[in-house]
Amino acid sequence: MSSFADQIEKDVQSMLKKYNAKDCITKDEAISYFKNSGSKFPERNASYLFKAMDLDHDGKLTLDEIRAGLIKEYSEKLEDTIELDIDAFFLKHDINKDQKIHKKEMIQYFEDLGTQFPSQAAEAIFKDIDTDKDNVITPNELEKVNILQY
C-alpha cells in the first residue's frame, strides 16, 4: 500500500477510535472530524466520502468500506497514470506517429541522446517490450510492462 493510503488508513482508524468503538462512523461524525481538522468544506467532504465509500448505503462507514473505496480509487488513478505514461512514451519515441515504435526510431532516439551504443540500447528495450518479436512496439505491448523504467 502506498504511504498516502497508509496515512489515510491511519487517519481513519484514529477517527474511528475518537468517535466510537463500533468500527464505524456516521456522516455527522465525519463532518465533525473534518470541522475539527480545519476543513473549509466539512459537509461537502463528508458527503463525498460517504457517496464514494458507503458501499451498503447504511449511513455508516466501516474500515472495510473505506479500504475497499481506497483500493478502487487508487486503482483508477493508477490506470490513468499508466495511460498517460504510455502516451508520453509514444510522444517521445514514435517519430512517424503511426502508433508503433520501430527499432529504427528507437536507435535514432539513442543516437540523438549521444548514447555510445544506440543499437544495443534499442535492442535491450525491444527484447523486454516487443513480446511478439515483430520489431515494433505497440501500446498494447507497453501496457504489459513497467514503462517508468524506460
Describe this structure in words.
The chain is mainly alpha-helical and 150 residues long. It folds into 2 domains: 3-74, Recoverin, domain 1 (Orthogonal Bundle); 94-149, Orthogonal Bundle (Recoverin, domain 1). Helix content is 65%, strand content 7%. The strands form 2 sheets. The protein has a two-stranded antiparallel sheet. Strands 3-4 form a two-stranded antiparallel ribbon. Helix 2 crosses helix 3 and helix 5 packs across helix 6. The model has no long low-confidence stretch (mean pLDDT 79). Keywords: Calcium. Pfam families: EF-hand_5, EF-hand_7. InterPro entries: EF-hand-dom_pair (IPR011992), EF_Hand_1_Ca_BS (IPR018247), EF_hand_dom (IPR002048). One of its GO terms (molecular function) is calcium ion binding. It comes from Dictyostelium purpureum (Slime mold).
Structural descriptors:
150 residues, Recoverin, domain 1, two-stranded antiparallel sheet, two-stranded antiparallel ribbon, 7 helices, 65% helix, calcium ion binding
